Amino acid sequence: MNEERLMQQFGSISRCAIKKLRRVLAKSHACTQEFEKSQRTVDKIKARAKLRQLRRVLAEEQTDLLSSTMASLTSEPCSLCMYVFPKINLTTKVSYKSIADLRASWAATNGSAENIDAGGDEAGGGDTTNDNGESKEQTAIGMTHARMTHLYDEAPVCVFCSQLVLNFSTYRPSSAERRAQDVKQKRTALKSIKAREATERRNLERCDPLDYNSYELNSDNDDSEEEEVVELKPDGRPQIVRRRRRQTVRAPVPLGVVSKRLHYETLRSDSLNKLTLDEWQKIIR
Questions:
Q1: Residue 207: strand, helix, or coil
Q2: Which residues pair with 92 in a beta bridge?
Q3: pLDDT (tens digit per residue) in 33-55
Q4: Fewest Cβ atoms closer than 10 Å to its Cβ: which of 62, 116, 204, 276?
């Protein structure tokens, strides 16, 4: 609509007002177009965000699905500690024989430690040797179960376990070291057996009612001027009498000899009084 037509239709409006009105209308039209453009941009952004959220949800579901289906192909447990690692991290390959030997050494060490804690000094070396034999038998049984033909196949191990497996000297001793270990075990077992026998002998001697130690009865090792002597009372009961030490040197009384001698004399006196004539005749013959 041109100015002449506006002036004809709106005769009371001046030319300046018409120009101003046109500028306002043009500006409002430009603002309307800018608003519509912004609205279309916002709609596109919302649509993209919605699609992105949908893709993220689908990606998470697909990732879980792929991880569950591909875990057996991309991951593998360590042959020693049995923890699951990605295959790319299991770079060290060793034989199953090394792992079996290492586990056998751990079993033997654990068994000997338990024997020491449980038995102490009186447990003896016989138990240790028996347990060592049992551990060897268990190891042999494990070897048969592991199928000997596959013991030298490669097995993957993690970085931590490789430090244990590659240190062969700790669980694969040489022949000289093995012989030294056997000799040491036999010597320890012999000492333990002797100590146990001595302990049992002392326990049996403690059952003697008159079991005196050598330094308490008739001992010349102390510096005292008195000595203790066992004498019999009129009623036949023994008593310990202190008297001045004699200058003669004699061996200490062995443990249990006094009570054995008194018991023998008592039995002898009782048996002599109770013998019959027929028994005396048999003895005389």
A1: coil
A2: 157
A3: 888 988 899 999 999 999 988 88
A4: 276
Per-residue b/e over 132-156, b at no fewer than 16 CB within 10 Å?
beebeeebeeeeeeeeeeebeeebb
Reading phi first (left if > 0) and then psi (alpha if -120 to 50, else beta), residue 147 is in left
For the chain, the residue count is: 285
What are 219-228's contacts with CB under 8 Å, separation 24+?
219/252, 220/249, 220/250, 220/252, 221/252
How far is the C-alpha of 260 from the C-alpha of 48, rounded, in Å? 109
Place of tokens 């596959």: 150
Q: Quick one: pLDDT at residue 108?
A: 79
Place of tokens 């690692």: 85
Q: pLDDT band for position 262 (50/70/90)?
A: low
> Pairing between strand 154-157 and 92-95?
antiparallel
Burial of 102 (0-12, 13-18, 19+ CB in 10 A): buried
